[in-house]
Specification:
This protein folds into two domains: about 5-90, Glycoprotein, Type 4 Pilin (2-Layer Sandwich), CATH 3.30.700.30; about 100-174, OB fold (Dihydrolipoamide Acetyltransferase, E2P), CATH 2.40.50.100. It has one helix at about 90-100; strands at about 5-10, 15-25, 30-35, 35-45, 50-55, 60-65, 70-75, 80-90, 105-110, 115-120, 125, 130-140, 140-145, 150-155, 165, 170-174. It is built from one helix and 16 strands. Helix content is about 5%, strand content about 60%. The strands form three sheets. It has an eight-stranded antiparallel barrel with strand order 1-2-3-4-5-6-7-8. Strands 9-16-14-11 form a four-stranded antiparallel beta sheet, with no helix packed on it. With about 170 residues, the chain is mainly beta. The mean pLDDT is about 85. It starts with a strand and ends with a strand.
């Protein structure tokens, strides 16, 4: 069965795990596939963020809140919070293409509002791609911010306990 649409989701708690979500049938009851496992889903939106979801005969009331950009969502289900990033196939291809060409000066900015728990690096330090630069706490979750490239930390704009908003400068690595 050919998918009507395909999305890729990652959870902040599992940054190296990606879920392929395919919409197989659209209608009153939707058929979706998550990493090849098929689910029948019925949902109703009650208000702006509350979703009543019936999936494989189980009912869930889930609060889904967009975090301002088109890809990040906070999901609350029975007191459990998840930060989820969802992108379509085109955006995923563009992101993979841009990752492969990451070179030169990189300005790292906050992608979500939160508070800096710990800064790991100082100006002048050498870092490898993927090295942790700091921890940003957002919605009760610790998010490790990593260097996109091998390089030298040129600027550190933050310190422990700083409050961040989306787009605030955090580091320059080149």
């Amino acid at each position: 069965m050919k998918a009507l649409a395909t999305y890729y989701a990652t959870l902040n708690d599992l940054p190296d795990t990606e879920f392929k979500v395919e919409i197989l049938e659209d209608g009153p009851i939707k058929k979706i596939s998550v990493n090849g496992r098929v689910y029948e889903v019925d949902y109703n939106v009650g208000g702006n963020t509350i979703h009543s979801i019936i999936m494989n005969h189980n009912s869930y009331n889930v609060q889904i809140t967009s975090l301002g950009n088109s890809a990040d969502y906070e999901i609350e289900n029975k007191g459990d919070y998840f930060l989820v990033n969802v992108v379509d196939e085109l955006k995923k291809m563009r992101m993979e293409h841009s990752k492969s060409g990451v070179i030169g000066r990189q300005v790292i900015t906050a992608q979500m509002p939160g508070v800096i728990l710990k800064v790991y690096v100082k100006p002048g330090e050498e870092v490898k791609a993927g090295a942790p630069l700091c921890v940003l706490v957002a919605m009760k979750m610790e998010n490790e911010i990593r260097s996109p490239i091998d390089g030298i930390v040129k600027e550190v704009y933050i310190k422990d306990n700083d409050k961040m908003t989306v787009g605030d400068k955090m580091f320059v690595v080149e």
